[in-house]
């Protein structure tokens, strides 16, 4: 039997040498082929390709995908979460529960992110220790096919580009505060919580050996927490049970436990006690490769007109349970990129950057808020009505502060055009005479707009951000992947200026809308004057 042991040892060493010799480019090619094969198997309509700038992105393979048709079928046990059972899970939860001050004063969802990130980090480390194999119990998968799938998913997540604010350095955040004018309390990082969680877990000898000295360098764990935060799907606990095909009664947990690992008898009560039946955050591999979508059109209320969302259905096919992803609109163009949006409330530039780590040029859902101290008490009476007419204020009470949210959507263009046409019916002589008599009102509107602009405090000109974006992009082009740390720094500086530019565009557009409204208000009054007998 000695020769079998020798053969196994030889194969392991050969595998390790092969893995060490594989270049990043070769690894990328391998993962690209692997995920293309996965989409070919699990999706009747989607293909996937890799782009150096975008990373993985999905494209429409069929000429037509009808509304609510299944885009991709994922085995339901591939949905993993912090609720699942895994090596060290019980020790992690019980150790955190022992620190009552930490547990009672911490958001459960934040703890869920951290425990989930720990789970993925430890699994990734075990794969490296095992020469690219997934040891038994690390993620709870027993079939070789499932293990092979997850080895590649974890490799992809390990090298995936994450740019949400959790992974930003102190210098990069300082750049954000300086140019985008956001404050540290708006970022609300969980890094300090993560450090405390790690210190608590290191009181346990076994956990301390597994986690290592991450109190001095948290970059690895922060990366995995960001993978969870930027790719997770959240469901209420009861919906999570429903999607697993379970009835609502507590007795149905028996069925759930038999089929689904996190609710084994020994861990059921611990899970319920620790997570308090709050929202379940879970990852669906492959679906996270379908890009985030930024709607391209907004209606007059600033709502997305081409919002694409998805729903998850549980179906059975040939005795296997799948989670089926369906989008809420049809796709009619072969070769187009297929993407979706999480929800209507996550489209604002800073929110996208903070939670998901990306920005969108010319984001139509940019919003700027500003406050006029002491209300509008400083505006002369003759200007208050003009300010109210052109939409630069909602005058409810002149005392106290007034806050406003401005968006990029404009006023009704048809109305403005109609007023313009009506105004042009007058003769040149009448227009000159009317303009002379209404000059005081013209000045009143212009003064109101001047006050409006000064209240917005738009800082530098938009050209400043455009020049910075162009300059940093040129530096990135010259680097060509030679220094990932410097690339990340440049990429995040570009994001800062894209967010800032979006804000300034809101200011500029609202100035234009206000001016147009003021001018047309005057024209409307002039038309009334010219039409009077």
Brief rundown of the structure:
With 533 residues, this protein is mainly alpha-helical. The protein has helices spanning 2-21, 24-42, 89-98, 100-104, 108-129, 144-159, 170-179, 184-187, 191-201, 205-211, 219-231, 237-243, 253-259, 265-275, 349-356, 381-389, 413-423, 428-437, 439-456, 462-479, 484-531; strands at residues 46-51, 55-60, 70-75, 80-81, 233-235, 280-283, 291-292, 310-317, 320-327, 339-340, 367-372, 402-407.
Task: Map the helices and strands.
Elements (H helix, E strand, L loop, with lengths): L1 H20 L2 H19 L3 E6 L3 E6 L9 E6 L4 E2 L7 H10 L1 H5 L3 H22 L14 H16 L10 H10 L4 H4 L3 H11 L3 H7 L7 H13 L1 E3 L1 H7 L9 H7 L5 H11 L4 E4 L7 E2 L17 E8 L2 E8 L11 E2 L8 H8 L10 E6 L8 H9 L12 E6 L5 H11 L4 H10 L1 H18 L5 H18 L4 H48 L2
Parallel strand pairs: 7-10
Antiparallel strand pairs: 1-2, 3-9, 4-6, 5-6, 8-9, 11-12
Helix pairs in contact: 3-14, 5-6, 5-11, 7-21, 16-19, 17-21, 19-21, 20-21
Mean pLDDT equals 75
Q: How much beta, percentage-wise?
A: 5-15%
User: Sheet with the most strands?
Assistant: 3 strands, antiparallel
Q: What gap, in angstroms, lies between the N and C termini?
A: 114 Å
Based on CA atoms alone, the radius of gyration comes out at 29 Å
Shape: globular
The strand count comes to 12
Strand adjacency order, main sheet? 3-9-8
Which structural category fits the helices and strands? mainly alpha
Put simply, the count of helices is 21
Low-confidence stretches: 1-22, 246-265
The helix fraction, in percent, is 40-55%
Task: Kindly report the oligomeric state of this protein.
Answer: single chain
InterPro entries: SET_dom_sf, SETD3_SETD6_MTase
GO molecular function, one term: protein-lysine N-methyltransferase activity
Signal peptide: 1-21
Keywords: Signal
